């Protein structure tokens, strides 16, 4: 029965799937989907007892699963390039329904819009554009989705445009463009510390544009949502590859890319810092921002020196590691995104996944 609570390993109760979630009554049927979609078939294995499963540590498998679920159950055409965050449809649908509950509760007064349509703002919509696509297809909501990397902006737009019935409902905005047009101020602030193990020293970085400058003066929204701006990579490893080895491979990867990095074996993190010349080259060659030379120089002036990005390795469950990439210098988002996807390829080669 959908909506039942699952027990975690520590005995506590895990949040249940929302009762209106399409997958609340029954989880996706991998075998049936494999029958219908030949491209999904190679990713489904069937055990001796006849149970069909998918390797959730294999990016290609989870991407294909997301693609067929969005197509089959939601009539949505969808794709993302390698290295981009792949969302799980049942999980992301929960958030849409939880927001729906909040909006219908007395906690949140309705914001009247002329169209009478619910309007949401999705900070960091990603290449996958998942929340706008689900909100629009499930409930007819309209969305503005923002992002800062070229690849996310390009694919979020493609994902909206490849669904003519939803295109009108989804607008994608470049938060970087907003920061350049609205005189971004450089500030020194604490790094985002969502893991207690992260070092506590302050990091100099430009203030990231999140809402200010991205929203228009006259606009109103019924809600705003955000899945934090980190990049995650999940690696299912063979027994002999531990977190320490992955950390060392990460360090070696950045050193081989001629970047300065500092490994911290206590917090299992690697801080990567680009030299002034590397930062300048990255920005002036416009790898992360397709703007004009004038915009590039404005961006260059807004850059504050310091740690550029941080990679942290976590052991999620024995044999499965999560590698989190945090962008600390927003001016380098494209460089970061591209390096993170190269790091992913390197780690997948050096620390192969568990055999299926
Ligand atoms: C963890 S991904 C989430 C993607 C998608 N919303 C999801 O839930 O699968 C976070 C996204 O936030 C973007 N991001 C980072 N800083 C941002 C900012 N200041 N404004 C908008 N997006 C940002 C990143 O480029 C990345 O695409």
From TrEMBL:
Enzyme class name: transferase
Residues given in the record as S-adenosyl-L-methionine binding sites: 92, 124, 147, 227
An example Gene Ontology molecular-function term: methyltransferase activity
Gene3D superfamilies, A to Z: Vaccinia Virus protein VP39
A GO CC term assigned to this protein in UniProt: nucleus
One Pfam assignment: Methyltransf_10
InterPro entries associated with the record: METTL16/PsiM, METTL16/RlmF, SAM-dependent_MTases_sf
Coiled coil: none
Enzyme Commission number: 2.1.1.-
UniProt keywords, alphabetically: Methyltransferase, S-adenosyl-L-methionine, Transferase
GO biological process terms on file: rRNA base methylation
Record family assignment: Belongs to the methyltransferase superfamily. METTL16/RlmF family.
Name assigned to this protein: U6 small nuclear RNA (adenine-(43)-N(6))-methyltransferase
High-level lineage: Eukaryota, Viridiplantae, Streptophyta, Embryophyta, Tracheophyta
């Amino acid at each position: 029965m959908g909506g039942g609570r699952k027990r975690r390993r520590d005995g506590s109760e895990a949040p249940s799937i929302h009762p209106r979630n399409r997958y609340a009554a029954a989880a996706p049927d991998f075998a049936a989907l494999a029958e219908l979609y030949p491209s999904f078939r190679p990713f489904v294995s069937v055990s001796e007892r006849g149970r069909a499963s998918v390797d959730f540590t294999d990016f290609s498998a989870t991407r294909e699963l997301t693609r067929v679920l969005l197509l089959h159950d939601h009539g949505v055409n969808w794709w993302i390039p390698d290295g981009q965050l792949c969302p799980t449809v049942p999980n992301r649908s929960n958030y849409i329904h939880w927001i729906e509950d909040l909006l219908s509760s007395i906690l949140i007064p309705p914001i009247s819009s002329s169209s009478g349509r619910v309007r949401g703002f999705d900070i960091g919509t990603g290449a996958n554009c998942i929340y706008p696509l689900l909100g629009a297809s499930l409930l007819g909501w309209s969305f503005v989705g923002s992002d800062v990397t070229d690849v996310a902006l390009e694919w979020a737009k493609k994902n909206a445009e490849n669904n003519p019935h939803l295109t009108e409902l989804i607008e994608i905005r470049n938060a970087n463009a907003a920061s350049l047009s609205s005189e971004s101020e450089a500030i020194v602030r604490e790094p985002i510390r969502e893991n207690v193990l992260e070092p506590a020293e302050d990091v100099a970085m430009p203030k990231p544009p999140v809402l200010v400058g991205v929203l228009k003066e006259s606009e109103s929204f019924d809600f705003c949502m955000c899945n934090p701006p980190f990049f995650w990579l999940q690696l299912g490893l063979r027994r002999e590859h531990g977190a320490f080895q992955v950390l060392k491979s990460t360090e070696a990867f950045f050193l081989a890319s001629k970047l300065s990095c500092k490994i911290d074996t206590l917090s299992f993190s690697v801080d990567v810092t680009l030299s002034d010349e590397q930062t300048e080259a990255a920005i002036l060659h416009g790898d992360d921002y397709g703007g004009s030379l004038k915009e590039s120089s404005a961006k260059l002036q807004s850059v504050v020196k310091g740690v550029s990005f941080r990679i942290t390795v976590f052991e999620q469950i024995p044999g499965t590691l999560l590698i989190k990439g945090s962008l600390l210098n927003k001016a380098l988002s494209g460089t970061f995104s591209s390096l993170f996807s190269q790091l992913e390829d390197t780690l997948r080669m050096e620390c192969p996944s568990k055999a299926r």
